[in-house]
Amino acid sequence: MIGDDQTVRSIFGAPSGPPTPGGPDGRRSPSSRSGEATAHLGELLQRSSRGDEGAFAELYDATSARVHGLAVRVVRDPAQAEEVTQEAYLETWRTASRFDPARGSAISWLMTIVHRKAVDRVRAAEASSRRDETYHHRNRPVEHDSTAEAAHSSMEAHRVRTALASLTTVQREAVTLAYLGGYTHTEVAGLLQLPVGTAKTRIRDGLIRLRDAMGVGQ
Amino acid sequence: MNESSHRLVGAYAADAVDDAERHEFEQHLAECADCREEVASLQEATAAITEATSVAPPAELRDRVLAQIATVRPLPPETVTAHPADADHTGSADVVALAPRRRRRLLVAVGSAAAAVVLAVGLGVAQPWAGDPDSPVDQVLQADDALSASLDLGDGARATVVHSEAVGRSVIETEDMPPPPDGSVYQLWYLDGGDYVSAGLMPAGRDQTVALQGESRDVDGVGITVEPSGGSETPTSEPIATFDFGPAA
């Protein structure tokens, strides 16, 4: 089974650096810098929808590490992750006119596209490759985490880790398996040995707490 | 509101739902502003997680992406304002040509009428509407055995059904579809022998691309009817369009 402790821990990236317990510190409003960045991304999307390739290149440069990082995290295989990243940007270009700033931030809209592509990819590949990847992953958790650590040195990453640390262990594991693991809530229930139906509650509660701790989506 | 639906909000925001759950929840979302708002706010939270997982892609990927988008036309915005003529649904209803519960043979017989078509081979992979981020449609649209047919429903409205026997699912795309009359919805049906089996409700909105609910393997075709809000167990009106999967299905 893939539900052993080691797998779960490695999937959600393990404590990289001492987590700051007691989340209240994590509750802060977004900095004005990230506020400006968000507005700017929305503008780049709007220009892209009119066929402005230069604006799209700027959008790519501003977001590709986050987009690709998520693709890598969910699908694992580097070649497939590149395909997912490419597909996601193509879809972003095509559907940029559908972005509505009144309904959410540009980065959220973009990450929703990428995540969906990544999840579709892993679910289509299904059982056999999933088993292989899990086996592969389980046997090299340290390497995975050290890679992650190197990439995560920014203030933003620290902010997220602090916010994640404010979740209960079960909430954090459920959210991480669902979002970064690409598992359905039913699979998350199996992995965490929770009753079916409980995992979706944990995911929701965890995301609400994360949202509030990050000061996003208010 | 149904509490069990609401509890799926988090799982939906994190894509931690299977296709059937997603389809069902999206129908709930179409009618629940609270859930739409919560999904949006939780997606801000999931997106924030990616601040901690950045990995720069290889430099050549940038060239590939920019070269590819240069060859693709961006979609126009979705139109949200209905012009007055659209409020009157009878224009579409005029194309009704079929009574419910007729045999597939009859559907084929009226295949030349505006309201019914037989799906044909020839769908390319790069359909311009393959890019809806919210629809579980890629498998069907990219299937090697995908069949498709389009119908003009009057007033510029158009519906296209794509079916893949291999995937066992069907997808419907609507363009500029007038909203159904107040208090009613468009309902999708599988035509199975003489029976109509519900395949879910169309979400509100003039331009939609959605997978039909349930497996479409071995069914004869797809129909659309106008039903009271919430849908019906069997059609209460004649279909405004039918799509026949043809002898191969």
UniProtKB/TrEMBL annotation, chain A:
<keyword id="KW-0238">DNA-binding</keyword>
<dbReference type="InterPro" id="IPR013249">
    <property type="entry name" value="RNA_pol_sigma70_r4_t2"/>
</dbReference>
<keyword id="KW-0805">Transcription regulation</keyword>
<dbReference type="InterPro" id="IPR007627">
    <property type="entry name" value="RNA_pol_sigma70_r2"/>
</dbReference>
<comment type="similarity">
    <text>Belongs to the sigma-70 factor family. ECF subfamily.</text>
</comment>
<feature type="region of interest" description="Disordered">
    <location>
        <begin position="1"/>
        <end position="38"/>
    </location>
</feature>
<feature type="domain" description="RNA polymerase sigma factor 70 region 4 type 2">
    <location>
        <begin position="159"/>
        <end position="210"/>
    </location>
</feature>
<protein>
    <recommendedName>
        <fullName>RNA polymerase sigma factor</fullName>
    </recommendedName>
</protein>
<dbReference type="Pfam" id="PF04542">
    <property type="entry name" value="Sigma70_r2"/>
</dbReference>
<dbReference type="InterPro" id="IPR036388">
    <property type="entry name" value="WH-like_DNA-bd_sf"/>
</dbReference>
<dbReference type="InterPro" id="IPR000838">
    <property type="entry name" value="RNA_pol_sigma70_ECF_CS"/>
</dbReference>
<dbReference type="InterPro" id="IPR014284">
    <property type="entry name" value="RNA_pol_sigma-70_dom"/>
</dbReference>
<dbReference type="Pfam" id="PF08281">
    <property type="entry name" value="Sigma70_r4_2"/>
</dbReference>
<feature type="region of interest" description="Disordered">
    <location>
        <begin position="125"/>
        <end position="157"/>
    </location>
</feature>
<feature type="compositionally biased region" description="Basic and acidic residues">
    <location>
        <begin position="125"/>
        <end position="147"/>
    </location>
</feature>
<dbReference type="InterPro" id="IPR039425">
    <property type="entry name" value="RNA_pol_sigma-70-like"/>
</dbReference>
<dbReference type="InterPro" id="IPR013325">
    <property type="entry name" value="RNA_pol_sigma_r2"/>
</dbReference>
<keyword id="KW-0804">Transcription</keyword>
<keyword id="KW-0731">Sigma factor</keyword>
<feature type="domain" description="RNA polymerase sigma-70 region 2">
    <location>
        <begin position="59"/>
        <end position="125"/>
    </location>
</feature>
<dbReference type="InterPro" id="IPR013324">
    <property type="entry name" value="RNA_pol_sigma_r3/r4-like"/>
</dbReference>
Automatic annotation (TrEMBL), chain B:
<keyword id="KW-1133">Transmembrane helix</keyword>
<dbReference type="Pfam" id="PF10099">
    <property type="entry name" value="RskA_C"/>
</dbReference>
<dbReference type="InterPro" id="IPR027383">
    <property type="entry name" value="Znf_put"/>
</dbReference>
<keyword id="KW-0805">Transcription regulation</keyword>
<dbReference type="InterPro" id="IPR051474">
    <property type="entry name" value="Anti-sigma-K/W_factor"/>
</dbReference>
<protein>
    <recommendedName>
        <fullName>Regulator of SigK</fullName>
    </recommendedName>
</protein>
<keyword id="KW-1003">Cell membrane</keyword>
<feature type="domain" description="Anti-sigma K factor RskA C-terminal">
    <location>
        <begin position="112"/>
        <end position="240"/>
    </location>
</feature>
<dbReference type="InterPro" id="IPR018764">
    <property type="entry name" value="RskA_C"/>
</dbReference>
<feature type="transmembrane region" description="Helical">
    <location>
        <begin position="106"/>
        <end position="126"/>
    </location>
</feature>
<dbReference type="Pfam" id="PF13490">
    <property type="entry name" value="zf-HC2"/>
</dbReference>
<feature type="domain" description="Putative zinc-finger">
    <location>
        <begin position="6"/>
        <end position="36"/>
    </location>
</feature>
<dbReference type="InterPro" id="IPR041916">
    <property type="entry name" value="Anti_sigma_zinc_sf"/>
</dbReference>
<feature type="region of interest" description="Disordered">
    <location>
        <begin position="226"/>
        <end position="249"/>
    </location>
</feature>
<keyword id="KW-0472">Membrane</keyword>
<keyword id="KW-0812">Transmembrane</keyword>
<keyword id="KW-0804">Transcription</keyword>
